[in-house]
Amino acid sequence: MGFTRFVEIGRVVLVNYGPDEGKLAVILDVADNNKALIEGPDTGVPRQLIPFKRLALTDFKLPIQRNARIGTIKAAAKEADLYAKWEASSWAKKKAKKVKRAQMTDFDRFKVMVARKQKSAIIAKKVAELQAAA
């Protein structure tokens, strides 16, 4: 099985380190074997050179030219419905779930525990009823 995600102009990336961590950006140019020029106008990522080890390549790619302007990037992202597709991806859902769990209070965790116990009790009761009927 070969690679499916390549470093290329227009590839949407997720910044995984630094002040812009967790934000989407687009590769505008490849500087050398270690760095790329990126920008995320809708997510607040300024145009900057960043090492590849601080980027995670996504499956999304925008049809833009090298060193595209901000307006061009925004238009391509809107046309491709990039942010809706990203929010629908399992990767984004997992990140949102992680953030939500990190923001829970002790009482929220307690409520989740109680709900989980109630669910398990209901499932156990239904299984016992089905086994008794069979």
Automatic annotation (TrEMBL):
Record-stated family: Belongs to the eukaryotic ribosomal protein eL14 family.
Cellular component annotations (GO), alphabetically ordered: chloroplast; cytosolic large ribosomal subunit
CDD domains per UniProt: eL14
Segments forming domain Large ribosomal subunit protein eL14: 46-119
UniProt-recorded Gene Ontology molecular function terms: RNA binding; structural constituent of ribosome
GO biological process: ribosomal large subunit biogenesis; translation
Top-level lineage group: Eukaryota
Annotated protein name in UniProt: Large ribosomal subunit protein eL14 domain-containing protein
Keywords of the record: Chloroplast, Plastid, Ribonucleoprotein, Ribosomal protein
Coiled-coil blocks: none
Subcellular location: Plastid, Chloroplast
Main location class: plastid
